[in-house]
Amino acid sequence: MTPGPVIAGPERVVGQVNGKLNGHIRERLLATNFWHLATVGADGAPQVSPMWADIEGEYVMVNTSIGRVKEENLRRNPYVSLSHHDPENPYDRAEIRGKVVRFVEGEEAERAMDRLARKYLGEDRYPWLLPGERRVMLLIEPTRVRRLEGVEPFRAGVLPDGAAG
């Protein structure tokens, strides 16, 4: 299916900008959408990974392997940004900024990964676990949650007075 043309107008924030996983953001997290998780490396460079995500209470839940770059980055600096765009309209996007407040290892992390496998793959167990691999569930406390539509405008004062932005 080829979507029709997308007309991008001025940006508008849809819903409140806050730290709550409400409405459309919650729906996107509960669906089988891929999210992009941004972390900061030891050298200060950004690192982005496509991730499966879900909701765990009031937290965003993602899962990775112990020893992955993103896991090491987050143990050093727990601040993250997650983003997702609507596949039918890439100008309709969601952003969640937050902080990893819990790193959960062991059986609970394995169960969480199996839950994600059921959601995303329809499999009872995560099928790609390697011998010796250990999982960690990351619980992210949202601090800024927003949904945007359109092209992002310039901040006040960036363009000359009277210029559109």
What name goes with the CATH superfamily?
Electron Transport, Fmn-binding Protein, Chain A
CATH fold node name:
Pnp Oxidase, Chain A
What global shape is seen?
A: globular
- Total helices: the number is 3
CATH architecture: Roll
- Give the helix proportion (percent range): 10-25%
Order of helices and strands: EHEEEEHEEHE
List keywords for this structure.
165 residues; alpha+beta; Pnp Oxidase, Chain A; eight-stranded antiparallel sheet; disordered N terminus; F420-binding_dom_put; Pyridox_Oxase_N; coenzyme F420 binding; oxidoreductase activity, acting on the CH-CH group of donors
Q: Topology, pairings included?
A:
Elements: E1 12-18, H1 23-30, E2 34-40, E3 46-52, E4 54-56, E5 59-65, H2 69-76, E6 79-86, E7 89-105, H3 107-121, E8 135-149
Antiparallel strand pairs: 1-8, 2-3, 2-6, 4-5, 5-8, 6-7, 7-8
Write a structural description:
The protein has 165 residues and is α+β, with helices and mostly antiparallel strands. The protein has one domain: Pnp Oxidase, Chain A, CATH 2.30.110. Helices cover 19% and strands 43% of the residues. The two termini are 33 Å apart. Pfam families: PNPOx_N (PF01243). GO terms for molecular function: coenzyme F420 binding; oxidoreductase activity, acting on the CH-CH group of donors.
Brief write-up:
One of its GO terms (cellular component) is cytosol. This protein has helices spanning 23-30, 69-76, 107-121, and strands spanning 12-18, 34-40, 46-52, 54-56, 59-65, 79-86, 89-105, 135-149.
